[in-house]
Amino acid sequence: MNRTEFIIVTAIILLIAFALGWFSYWLLHRFARVSGGDMGEMDNLAQSLHEAEEMRDQALIYLEQREAELLSQISQTEAELRAAMEGLRDARHEAEEMRAYIERMHANS
Fold first, then answer.
1. CA 54 to CA 46: how far, in whole Å?
2. Are residues 22 and 55 in the same domain?
């Protein structure tokens, strides 16, 4: 195969590839064409999607606020529990001191 034949064969192959590509493009757009009714439905779907995203964002904000409130309540409850446990410990210690005092008073009498 000489140079001229090679160029001609390459040109024919490129022309066939171009024709197949153009035909595929035309075929794809012919079957994938969107009608006017479909556009209305697509607009409705887009609007529904937008509303759903807004609701999701609001739900996330609400959940974050609620989580912060609950964490605050938990920390407050834990602080109250620590204070109550400390008070109970002090009361037990005081009761033990009172028992010991009463026992000494009975032992001395």
1. 12
2. no
DSSP-derived letter for residue 4 is H
User: Model-level pTM?
Assistant: 0.49
27 and 51, same domain (yes or no): no
* pLDDT at 22 (0 to 100): 96
Q: What does the alpha-carbon distance between residue 28 and residue 46 come to, in Å, rounded to a whole number?
A: 24
pLDDT in tens, 47-87: 999 999 999 999 999 999 999 999 999 999 999 999 999 99
User: Closest by alpha carbon to 62, among 74, 70, 51, 73?
Assistant: 70
3-state secondary structure of 93: helix
Instruction: Tell me the residue range of the domain where 85 lies.
Output: 47-109
d(CA 28, CA 32) in angstroms, rounded, equals: 6
Q: Is residue 109 in some structural domain?
A: yes
Half-sphere exposure of 32 (CA within 13 A, CB side): 6
Q: Residue 37 has what pLDDT?
A: 64
